[in-house]
Amino acid sequence: STRKESSAASDVYKRQMHKSKWRRSAQAMKHSNAIVNAEDFWQYAGSRYGKGDVAPLAILLQDRHGVNVNILLLICWCIEHGFIINLPQLNAVINAVEASEHALKQHRLERKQAKPEDKQDANYPQALAKYNQLKDDELELEKAQQAIIVETVNSLGLASLPSGASSMSGVFNASIAALINGYKLREKQEARELISQLLKQLS
Question: Pick from 67, 74, 66, 68: which is nearest to 45 by CA?
Answer without folding.
Answer: 74
